[in-house]
Amino acid sequence: MKRLILTFGLALVVAGCNATTPEKAMSLEDQYKAALARTQAAVKKAASVEGEWRDIRWKKSKKRYLPKAIEAAKAGDYQKALKLLSIAEFQAKMGYEQAMAEKDAGPWLYGL
Amino acid sequence: MTKAKQRFSALAGSLVLLTGLLAATQAQAADDAIAAGKKIAFDRKKGNCLACHQIEGGTLMGNIGPPLMAMKYRFPDKAKLRAQIWDATRNNPRTIMPPFGKHRILSEKEIDLVTEFIHSL
Amino acid sequence: MKKIATLLLSAGLVATATQVLASTPEEDLQKFRAYFQEKFPGLKLDDFGNGAYALDENKRLQWESMEEFPPYEEFVDKGREIWEKPFKNGKSFADCFGPDPSKVRVRYPHWDPETKEVVTLEGDINKCLKENGEKPFKWKKGPIAWLSAFFGYEARGQKINVEIPNDPDAIKAYEHGRHFFYAKRGQLNMACADCHVKYPGHFIRGNLLSPALGHVTHFPVYRAKWAKKSKDGDGLGTLHRRYGGCNKQVRARPFKAQSKVYRDLEFFHQYMSNGLTINAPGYRE
Predict the structure, then answer these.
(1) What is the ipTM of this complex?
(2) Quick one: CATH architecture of B33-119?
(3) How far is B104 from chain C (nearest CA, A)?
(4) What is the rounded average pLDDT of the residues A8-36?
């Protein structure tokens, strides 16, 4: 019985500790690093299904959200970097979803 | 006139003035929204609506989609028009119309303004 | 238990495979041609090689006046010079392609069963250069487009005749290209088929959309838009240059010219114009 209470109490403490560590406590730089990793993974995923959109990192795009985010971070502007990364990540995810939704595309969709 | 009557007519007068001013400001705001929406709609890098739709005041207009006129009749519910602009694939998965909201081609605010403009046609 | 599982799995795979292979290239081609001929009943098969100009009287008149003194002629001549000039090692393009330049264009694109790849004309031009110790050309414009235009010009009057062998890898490449053509892509969510199967004959702003049937007969194409951008008024560009441009316009990331994606796309795309007469290079706005 005692063991049960102790284990349960310990579990509660651990859960509580995790719960009281909000994202905001992470430094901007760490947030940026995490977002960058997520974004790069998402872009790779989109590219793997030929679903990458134009403005994420293509060198001739006027936007180039991902490289510009990295530039901003290098200059110390993590807020800007995070903003640009969120756009890049959104576009990467949407491109992947789009390609997956179009998996069975063919002439039959156009009455052919 | 009695003092009470004077005060009453002053109050009534200012209320009328206020309502008039309010209505005028609202009308102006609505006009501003329509003008701002038109600008976005006609911008090739934003709505680029003229690529596919004929719209009064446009030039070199495409004819891939239906001409945009009598919109209040076709979309009595403005929210339905907004939804169509936000994601036309909901009604037709193979539509050529880009999903302006779903793909964040336009911001939510821009879509609000464009909706005001298109609904006014 | 294992046996049943394997049986079910293979049945499932066969089911999926047959679903994708739902139509053969030949079936696709018949339906493709029938679709466009029904959509534009006034046109003969070869008329489709003139693209949007076959569909609109005004545009046709403008185009015919350009074709009287075609701006691409000087670049076809440049292509001829490249064909005739020997390499540093004494050999020339004739050693790769054979002595008759009029017999070159019609062989492309074709399937190479050894490398298991779609081989394009531009691909073999650069292959020839590399094999002879010469610097390969850039893929999308300039000398490669001039030489390709020269080959196309010499082949005028011949019919496109892409062969898709009964080889599962070749069919896979064809289907990859077919899928690319019909799938929506980019932030603007458009498929090649949207403009060129569903809406040819319609206007997008002031531009008339061309039908996909006949698309490739006049490539490399001389585009007035490209000529304006160029220092020398050189408007010639390859098919893959246009693929990239179109992908860019729907806000999809363009693929590299001569990448597998575009070569597979070309395999499908040219096959769909089998039987049509080559009229390269063509002038376009």
Answers:
(1) 0.89
(2) Orthogonal Bundle (1.10)
(3) 8
(4) 73
Distance from CA of A91 to the nearest CA of C (A): 8
The yes-or-no verdict on residue C18 having pLDDT over 50 is no
* C182 to A107: CB separation less than 8 angstroms, yes or no: yes
Is residue C258 very low, low, confident or very high in pLDDT (cuts 50, 70, 90)?
A: very high
pLDDT tens digits, B22-68? 888 888 888 899 999 999 999 999 999 999 999 999 999 999 999 99
Q: CB neighbours of C139 closer than 8 A, spacing ≥ 6?
A: C122, C126, C238, C240, C241, C256, C257, C258
Distance CA C108, CA C124 (A): 9
**What is the side-by-side strand order in the sheet with C236-237?**
C236-237, C221-223, C282-284
**Hey, where are the domains in chain B?**
33-119
Q: Which chains touch A (3 or more CB pairs under 8 A)?
A: B, C
Query: Is any Cβ of chain A less than 8 angstroms from the Cβ of B3?
Result: no
For residue C16, the model assigns a pLDDT of 46
From the list C187, C195, C205, the residue facing B60 with the nearest CB is C205
Please state, in angstroms and rounded to a whole number, the distance separating the CA atoms of residues C72 and C24. 37
Whether residue A63 has pLDDT greater than 60? yes
Residue C221: strand, helix, or coil: strand
Assigned CATH for C73-153: 1.10.760.10
Assigned architecture for domain C23-71+163-284: Orthogonal Bundle (1.10)
- Given a cut of 70, whether residue A12 has pLDDT beyond it is no
Residue A78 has what pLDDT? 97
**Residue B37 tokens, joined:** 């929406």
Q: Which chains touch B (3 or more CB pairs under 8 A)?
A: A, C
* C246 flagged as catalytic: yes
